Amino acid sequence: MTNDLTRLTADALATKLAAGDISSVEATQAHLDRIAAVEGAVHAFLHVASDSALAEAADIDRRRAAGEQLHPLAGVPIAIKDVIVTKGMPTTSGSKILEGWVPPYDATVMTKLRAAGLVSLGKTNMDEFAMGSSTEHSAYGPTHNPWDLERIPGGSGGGSAAAVAAFEAPFALGSDTGGSIRQPAHVTGTVGLKPTYGGVSRYGAIALASSLDQIGPVSRTVLDSALLHDVIGGHDPRDSTSLTDVWPSFAEAVRNADVAGLRIGVIKELQGDGFQPGVMERFREALALLEGAGAIITEVELPSVEHAIAAYYLIMPAEASSNLAKFDSVRFGLRVNPKGGGTVEDVMSATREQGFGAETKRRIILGTYALSAGYYDAYYGSAQKVRTLVQRDFAAAFANADVLVSPTAPTTAFKLGEKTGDPLSMYLNDIATIPANLAGIPGISVPAGLAAEDGLPVGIQFLAPAREDARLYGVAAALEALLEEKWGHTLLSQAPDLSSSEMNATDEGAV
């Protein structure tokens, strides 16, 4: 029974909980048992909150037994990316500089999850301060892809995606600054959505780049993502960038999915050279299915997209350099005292030297340089102009299409250690996801099958105009249904079983 419960979707678990077929304690314990069984191989979690999770679950069961009217998702377990501040649980953002820090408050999304009665299983691994595409830049060791334990789970939110793909949690929260929800979804066979910028509160999310960051759902089905999005979305007065819109039910958009007459624009610049043949094969098959269901497939051009990565890797480090200045050894977090003492500046320097990893230092230095006197206009200012061009290109494209589509990333999951020595190669992995963050529009990655060359998952990405997240859920749900009808199964049902022999072999030769 334990094994069966971890295979259920969040929606299916919620249905069983509401009917009294299972208890929240049973569902939570099943997932904790699964975590204990496979974490030696996957390393998706930085902190597993066993005691508090079971206590939360028991409270939900008590309230349900007493006849209290609960949220439909009450009692369902969830994993939380460690960039999201959690009262009573460590929050490190994958960095040694915050090792052991237990926040005195909750992020807004956590407040909403607790109010809805979801049970927090713990905090998931990530690239330090969300800087990376592979979760290899975590100060606490890499996460492994459940499909192939020698490969990356994507980044920066590889822990959340891997936890969902390995059936350690039915769904999870992630954050997406340049693809950190969608790219891990692509390589792990999961669903990942970046909401419209401002659609979900960022209050309590440790900032990387404030004009780009966005919290969103990670799940195994489009419906589960929509259900979670319905919980966490909405206006928050504590976030100055939060939209005041009244959002529709995203779950209803999934249940009413229909692509007949929908204009789908294929992004010309995000295919062809540099894209793995197996990725493109699954992409073309998905388009054919959508066209067969009545969608109108056209081609659109986004000429500024070729400059998006260059602009992003000036804007994001510049904002990171400003945001990470608060880690000064004085107020909270790590403090390293130099031998023989020293000034506050000496302590600050020693702390940052030991507390920040190499990739974080690289981006802070780059961002500080881009913002420095004499270079601001040439670098940061020029990058913001490119950002404007990207936004204009999207506006023009959406005049001729309801949604846009591309592969989520150029390749399937690469091997651990394969690109850590070549930062540019790593950065290029986000070529298809970064433009949505620059434009502030929503994007979703949906599993499209397995690449023929290596049998690894491939994702297809849909993009919609700002505030049209519901439109994304509709087309994503339609494709999900078409693919599962064609396959006769869900993609993750084909994932390798994480046997004890595989786990032992991985532990002995861990990267």
From TrEMBL:
Active site: 81 (charge relay system), 156 (charge relay system), 180 (acyl-ester intermediate)
HAMAP family linked: GatA
Originating organism: Agreia pratensis
Entry function: Allows the formation of correctly charged Gln-tRNA(Gln) through the transamidation of misacylated Glu-tRNA(Gln) in organisms which lack glutaminyl-tRNA synthetase. The reaction takes place in the presence of glutamine and ATP through an activated gamma-phospho-Glu-tRNA(Gln).
A single GO cellular-component term on record: glutamyl-tRNA(Gln) amidotransferase complex
GO BP term, example: translation
Its EC number(s): 6.3.5.7
Substrates-to-products reaction catalysed: L-glutamyl-tRNA(Gln) + L-glutamine + ATP + H2O = L-glutaminyl-tRNA(Gln) + L-glutamate + ADP + phosphate + H(+)
A molecular-function term among this protein's GO annotations: ATP binding
UniProt similarity note: Belongs to the amidase family. GatA subfamily.
Name of the protein in its database record: Glutamyl-tRNA(Gln) amidotransferase subunit A
Classification via SUPFAM superfamilies: Amidase signature (AS) enzymes
Sequence ranges assigned to domain Amidase in this UniProt record: 26-472
